Amino acid sequence: MFNWLQNFSDWLIYTIFNVGEDTHLGTALNFFVFDTLKILILLFIIVFFMGIVNAYFPIERLKNYLNKKKLYGLEYFFASIFGAITPFCSCSSVPLFIGFVQGGIPLGVTFSFLITSPLVNEVAVAMFIGMFGLKATIIYVVSGIILGTIAGWLLGKFNLEYLLSDWVKKILENKIQHREYAGEKRTFYQRIPEITKSAWDIVKGVIVYVIIGIAIGAAMHGYVPENFFNQYLGGGEWWTVPLAVILAVPMYANAAGIVPVIQVFVAKGVPLGTAIAFMMGTVGLSIPEATLLKKVMSLKLIAIFFSVVTICIIFSGYLFNLIL
Amino acid sequence: MQKVIKILGTGCPKCKAMTAVVKEAVADNNIDASITKVEDIMEIMKFNIMTTPALVIDDVVSIKGRVPSKKEVVDLLK
């Protein structure tokens, strides 16, 4: 699918810039040009399709569905899947959270949604396809959804409602007045330009991270010796997975910047499971998200939430390393 | 009559984009309207929305969760 792009990169670097094919600089530059273009194309396509889904995704109806039906525990799974489908904007997480809880959806189910939403997002998926291929992407997405299901279910078992902020509890007690919503009246074709534009805006917003990430990746790719990480991180010692995850949580690199670097780690000998766990820790949990959630829940609840998810990520890291 | 426009959003890039679009739409067409940005999450939740940014015209939520085009805003204001 991307042969033409590889040919273009070869031509640009080896012929036009006349950098030798067997030099470090040559391979690094080639890698950089090829990956940057490939990722940007993939990003645009995936973000565009997610934009269409987003435009038609009936989040209110989903809320009612999760609330009304008795789903025998499957509601955690559904909430997690929906979290993966809906494009995530960290600024929407609080309104979504309150909307869910207010709609009578149990806290645990809401958490399932909240965990998967940033974990499996369109930018991360596009980057994963570009750097690791389809198979690794499917593993990442499926395990992200399962992780959200299990972690949400666990959190639900703890009965943590009393740890919500006072004003949220108040909202839950007396249902606030329902506002009128004019509704959307425009056709699909009328919406295409704006969906295209917002897809482009998202891509524009992450371009600089993609370039920095791939530049670091390209530099490492060309200069870090083979098996370098094998000596330190790749040996599969038991502590490498927890270490990777704990390092990742405070890191707020977005998926666009982090995946190219991880890819080089894997190429140089870090097990894929450890790398996926690291990735999940980076995008799934972050300090900015915690600050936003602070408005709706106590610090204690945030701490419990983050700990449970961190532990689940560490376990899935072990699991990947075992089965992959 | 003056339109009362409220933009609900916690300050994310999309919310800023919506504010810019609305301001332009109002200025370009000489529409008599007041524009307020509502950034306090407790206030925002009173409008019963789940995705931001949202555009509220005369107390009716008209758009939520996305940035509208200028033309769309003008149409809504007429």
UniProtKB/TrEMBL annotation, chain A:
**InterPro entries listed in its UniProt record:** DUF318, UPF0718_permease
Record's bilayer topology term: Multi-pass membrane protein
Q: Where in the cell is it found?
A: Cell membrane
Segments crossing the lipid bilayer: 39-57, 77-101, 107-130, 137-156, 206-224, 236-253, 265-287, 299-320
Can you quote a single GO CC term?
plasma membrane
The alphabetized UniProt keywords are: Cell membrane, Membrane, Transmembrane, Transmembrane helix
Q: Which family does it belong to?
A: Belongs to the UPF0718 family.
The protein depicted here goes by the name Permease
Please name the source species: Putridiphycobacter roseus
